[in-house]
Amino acid sequence: MRINLLTYNIEHGLDYRLIKYDHIRHINLDNIAKVITESGADIIGLNEVYNSSMKNPDRVEQAKKLARYTKIRNHIFAKALAVGGADDYGNACLSKLDYKDYEVFSVPSPEIKREKTYYENRCILKVNFIIDNNRILTCFITHFGLAKVEQESMHKRLLEEVAKINNPFVIMGDFNLEDDNEYIIDFKNRFNIAIKIPTPTFTSLNPYKRIDYIFTSKDIIITQAKVLNYVASDHLPVFATIEV
Fold first, then answer.
1. Are 65 and 31 in contact (CB under 8 A)?
2. Does the N-terminal peptide bond of residue 241 adopt cis geometry, omega within 30 degrees of 0?
3. Which is nearest to 77 in space by CA: 27, 5, 125?
């Protein structure tokens, strides 16, 4: 079965051109919806998605709105944290395929913060999709942290969850890590990677490093993969077609 995948850090829909050139922070989900629609993806993993807000209506139910704008029937939101103690924020999945079930795994920031960097609670969204002949394809949507201890925790938890399943799987998201990082090297050794030659995904207007990836289990064939040249978010989306 052929399936199109897309992983995309949408920066909660902020219009990156306006930020870059006019220093205006304006949410425009229509931009993101256009990228998703034109990609033709069947399963879309999203990072930096809001689901609720005390003050900003543009942050409310962003995954649901994107599903409606793109006419994609399924959407799931996975809460990683509450920004400012109130606004729910995390990962999301849109899909044209039906899913059997899903789970959200919390990967919290450590209580003791020894590194001089930004810390944030993260999560993994695991979705079991029903494909032909009632087979299961599992997708893990992840967003790694910036602190080394957070990256170590996320890498460990992903490997733990992958070890529990016996069916084909995909891991995709914003890893905040470049190709020479030990965890990316480990994933390259364990799994298939979409786009073997490093292609920058950040920033979208002046891409200079790859931090967004799609990995698959060895039993999946990746027939094509590319970085899509859309300036909507501050990241570029990564697209792949797989045969399961």
1. no
2. no
3. 125
CATH of residue 181's domain is 3.60.10.10
Other C-beta atoms closer than 10 Å to the C-beta of 193 total 20
Q: Supply 174's token pair.
A: 């914003």
pLDDT in tens, 91-137: 999 999 999 999 999 999 999 999 999 999 999 999 999 998 889 99
Q: Total structural domains in the chain?
A: 1
Please give the radius of gyration of the chain, using alpha carbons only, rounded to the nearest integer: 17
Spatial CA neighbour of 52 closest among 34, 70, 69, 65: 65
The one-letter amino acid code at 55 reads K
Q: Are 162 and 140 in contact (CB under 8 A)?
A: yes
Helix (H, G, I), strand (E, B) or coil at 227: strand
pLDDT of residue 199: 98
Predicted TM-score (pTM) of the model is 0.97
Say if CB 143 and CB 155 are below 8 A apart. no
Distance between CA atoms of residues 170 and 115, nearest Å: 31
Residue with tokens 């073997």: 196
Full domain range(s) for residue 9: 2-243
- How many CA within 13 A on the CB side of residue 146? 8
CA angle 48, 52, 53 (to 5 degrees): 100
Signed CA dihedral, 215, 100, 155, 239: sign only: positive
